[in-house]
Amino acid sequence: MRRTQAPIDLNALQAFLAVCETGSMTGAAKQLGVSQSAVSQAIAALERDQGVVLFDRESRPPRPNIAGRALLELAGPLLEHAQMVSARIGDASNTGTLPVRLGCVDSFAATVGPELIRAVSGSARQIALWSGLTPGLSKQLHDRELDLAVCTQTTLNDARIVEVPLFSEAFVVVVSRTLLAERRNIDWRALALEMPMIRYTPRSVIGQQVERYARHLGIDSPRRYEFDATDPLLSLVAARLGFAISTPLCLWQARHYLPEIGVLPLPPGRLGRRDFFLLHRQGEWDAFAHDIVSLTRRVLEASIKPALARALPQLPDDALM
């Protein structure tokens, strides 16, 4: 049965090449800046791992034998390739050309995401954008399937993960615009007594947050309609089949419904806001994380907030900040 050779150690290969070039162990040691014994040990280990003798040691200086000449023919290209790989890794890391894998909750991906892609498209940076739910994104970041993640809840107990606050938004009651026109003085308490609450499903973080806040406010509405996404939720609100509790960014994500809905403010408090965080590993992608924070805040202030204020004048001033 043929013996399986061990993979060639590149340091040992470099020592072998140096001996061939200089004609001696002493010359190779001087070229590599190591001791002569280190060169001798590297050559011995290389011969042992490959199961062959590489030098004719009876000649002075030692010259490569048949096996040695075969290895010498391949050694140069192999080392050049290894050096090229090393250089490309270093260049990609230093110049930021590695593609960055960014995961975002759906409402962020659909609103700020396009502006982020547009800003990055003019640079050498490559970006792959994922969307999903906070628990899944957090796990992907922990498992190194993502480089950065925009989440609405920090669920990772990992000191290596940096949590950068991005922005905060207030929960608001969403109701049909025609109903608001008919009953201008209605508030959320009266609405909750008259209509069912249309919910996000509890498997989403926003669904869980809305449910906690609704209980805190004393809203006891039967569970009739539940959705994963904002679009179907708003379609029922627009049809006057109930009211919902949502956020400005979710409303902007489904902005084609804005002409058909209105909003009512809810009492301020810790449970009445949804916070966004940018998560990344300490010491990795720091500069790009800073760019994302700056870009996000710029998009919110210059684009999304003014557009929401025009479409929903009832929206509180601190609804998105």
UniProtKB/TrEMBL annotation:
PROSITE patterns, per the entry: HTH_LYSR
Alphabetically ordered keywords of this record: DNA-binding, Transcription, Transcription regulation
GO cellular component term, pick one: cytosol
One GO MF term attached to the UniProt entry: DNA binding
InterPro entries referenced in this protein's UniProt entry, alphabetically: HTH-type_LysR_regulators, LysR_HTH_N, LysR_subst-bd, WH-like_DNA-bd_sf, WH_DNA-bd_sf
Keyword DNA-binding included in the entry's annotation: yes
Ranges where the HTH lysR-type domain occurs: 8-65
Lineage: Bacteria, Pseudomonadati, Pseudomonadota, Betaproteobacteria, Burkholderiales
Family, similarity comment: Belongs to the LysR transcriptional regulatory family.
Organism of derivation: Paraburkholderia lycopersici
Pfam families: HTH_1 (PF00126), LysR_substrate (PF03466)
Source organism, top-level taxon: Bacteria
Protein name (database record): DNA-binding transcriptional regulator, LysR family
